[in-house]
């Protein structure tokens, strides 16, 4: 853990002011260095009060996502332990891909950017990635799986995200097959999974996750985002993006490990409980056709089962509306 992360962690846990001397001793640097670190944290947007003759009190974390802030929350073994934080990029998927090509993308790598100029969604749709308002992330995972075992990963990720978001916000999140998270029917997050594999081996999976966190209603005035909402609009307390990111890292790590060991079956019933469409009449558009029917559930491969009245169809990809 970096020295700044140590200082943030100590101050975050403290119930009373922590003196410069105590910090210096615990972190293992001089008091002058502690003072410099504190000034630099304040410049980054942390609110730290110096209480005379007592020490420092952390009043508010910075809203910026930084390595040391994330480290102070992380409870994972590998996820987000390798981290690329960027102020701006075209797309975190592109950055992650370049890191893979350069051999700099171990399992669990996280690329996070405050702004994306060319954020992309499924089916090459644009993805609005406003500066400082969301979590625009790509995770590189290298699971011990065969290529045909990759498709349910999107559903496993959706479930992990829903759990993490609910823990931090207490807002109920539904899953819309295959890759959307909804609050009261409005989209708050999407997942873009890209597989890099040879016929018999997964090289890497790029899991792109976009979450609308801090947007206000005005941010959704554009037709591109009219069916969208943010977590903050639904949550009655301030949301810290870094804390949320650390919870997501933990849930993703646990879920992907579990999927590697046990497959998709243990996820199926919880996934169906959270689905906004099971038992409902749906219209599904795939690359080949549009079908209508009742959504029955999912199978062990993550396919959506739709009863068309003339038989049950298993859909592996597509857009589904109620
Ligand atoms: C979708 O719902 O269509 C998927 C949206 C995925 C958006 C994320 S934001 C971070 C990552 N970088 C991108 O360009 N896209 C994904």
SSE order and pairing:
Layout: H1 3-13, H2 20-27, H3 31-43, E1 47-51, E2 55-60, H4 67-73, E3 83-89, H5 92-101, E4 109-116, E5 134-141, H6 153-169, E6 174-176, E7 180-183, E8 186-198, E9 201-212, H7 231-234, H8 241-262, H9 265-274, E10 281-285, E11 290-298, E12 304-307, E13 312-315, E14 319-321
Helix pairs in contact: 1-4, 2-3, 4-8, 6-8
Bound molecules: biotin.
Biotin binds next to helix 5, strand 5, strand 8 and strand 9.
Report on the structure:
The chain has 322 residues and is an alpha+beta fold. It has 3 domains: 58 residues, Winged helix-like DNA-binding domain superfamily/Winged helix DNA-binding domain (Arc Repressor Mutant, subunit A, Orthogonal Bundle), CATH 1.10.10.10; 207 residues, Bira Bifunctional Protein, Domain 2 (BirA Bifunctional Protein, domain 2, 2-Layer Sandwich), CATH 3.30.930; 45 residues, Roll (SH3 type barrels), CATH 2.30.30.100. 32% of the residues lie in helices and 28% in strands. The longest helix has 22 residues. It is elongated and about 80 Å long. The site of biotin has 22 residues, from α5, β5, β8 and β9.
